[in-house]
């Protein structure tokens, strides 16, 4: 069985300073993300063993582990790509992403305000998510509790923000709102636009 692997970051651990510190990035990537990859591979191996033995007594726990660790791996892989050094972060003023945000939110600023509010208000641990909803052909803002709860099935995330405490606590302590506000300095808008192009090509 092919195993999932921890992806490399697309930049150095200190590249997002001063908005996210190097120590947080190392801990987040090398320990937390790596833990989700390990948990995902473990869940898949145990499910394979269950099939071979015909023993599904632990199917509920294994299904939960698959969803939790798999979603954690997916979101973190996207999270790293959602960011870039400040000098490379250029908020869109034209193009497909800009026009779609105007259509669905009224303006880019309206989107940012809604996304920030949703991210700050996540109950406990979770994510702020901008996703393409292919049936309605629109952008929507979601909250994801843990990694896998409160999703809208079929939607395709194109920008995510991790608001688990491990994403910001070394630098911001309990000031999640400040962390969310600083996130806009390092958003990789080109990656978001690329993902919108890919997601909107889906025909469901």
Strand-and-helix sequence, N→C?
HHHHEEEHHH
What CATH first level of the largest domain would be assigned? Alpha Beta
Shape: globular
Helix content: 40-55%
Low-confidence stretches: none
Spatial extent as radius of gyration = 18 Å
Structural class: mainly alpha
Task: Please give the largest β-sheet.
Answer: 3 strands, antiparallel
Total of domains: 2
The pLDDT mean sits at 95
Bin the strand percentage: 5-15%
| CATH architecture assignment name of the largest domain | 3-Layer(bab) Sandwich
CATH topology of the largest domain: minor pseudopilin epsh fold
Describe the structure.
It contains 7 helices and 3 strands. α1 (22-53) runs antiparallel to α2. The chain is mostly helical. It is globular and about 55 Å long. The relative contact order is 0.15.
Q: How is the secondary structure organized here?
A:
Elements: H1 22-53, H2 59-81, H3 96-105, H4 108-120, E1 126-133, E2 138-145, E3 156-162, H5 169-172, H6 176-183, H7 189-200
Antiparallel strand pairs: 1-2, 1-3
Helix pairs in contact: 1-2
